[in-house]
Amino acid sequence: MDIIVADNAGFCFGVKRALDLVARAAERPGPVYTLGPLIHNPQEIARLERQGVRGIDSLEGAPGEGVLVLPAHGVAPALEDAARARGLEVVDATCPFVKAAHAHIRTLSDQGYSVVILGDRGHPEVAGLAARAGAQAHIVTSAAEAEALPFAPRYGLVVQTTQHPQVLREVAAALVARGRELRVFNTICEATIRRQESARRLAAKVDVMVVIGGRNSANTRRLHEICAATGTPTHHLETAAELRPAWIEGAARVGVAAGASTPDWIIAEVVASLRALAPDPPRP
After folding, report:
1. Which residues neighbour 101 within 8 Å (Cβ) at sequence distance 6 or greater?
2. Which of 34, 166, 208, 273 is deepest in the core (most CB within 10 A)?
3. Has 225 been annotated as catalytic?
């Protein structure tokens, strides 16, 4: 059985940067906290906890000392301000691509645009974007939702960094009819686009796809959707322990893709487990 790992599988630049920042903070004396999960991978978060980095769900969980690392997907400005007011040293691990989206949101809001955010409702990155747009923000997940928005003189569109370009094009086209002016900022991360395209191409060439990543990871869920849309049987798992022999029974080629928060050691474990489940036949 051939096992092919997609290009661009595993940590993206923003995740690597966040982990580097928290590792440096952990080398110093004093407590280190992350506000919510630093990245969306439960196994990597557990590894950080074993190193003494404590995740907290709210500022009430941290005393007025130590270092608070903001997550890669960003937070609302009020949370960052509140952390500093409590006496915490704040390390901003927000992905630079997310920070760029923050800046575009502020520009649109300051210039009086009605802001539309294409993204997953409830996702922390989208919540951080919406917090910067105030009462003007509309969150949509599809062109159909964009078509249902009220008419506005000026719409500005910003997109969650892990969305798919085709959905962005569809939503932008829908907004053209909802106002007299539309300004679009394509804030999809280029690494996300490359990851999605390489996974899609691989899925079209193999018998089975395995997508590795946290179930709380939006970009991993999107990879699963993209691969499954090719018609190839596709399975989403977090660790090698979730592999099932029936998934690859009779498969000659198995593709492996991984989300942007998936560490290399988990990818390696899954590949090793796949080989153990269906080893290559002995050569004559």
Report:
1. 129, 158, 159, 160, 161, 185, 187
2. 34
3. no
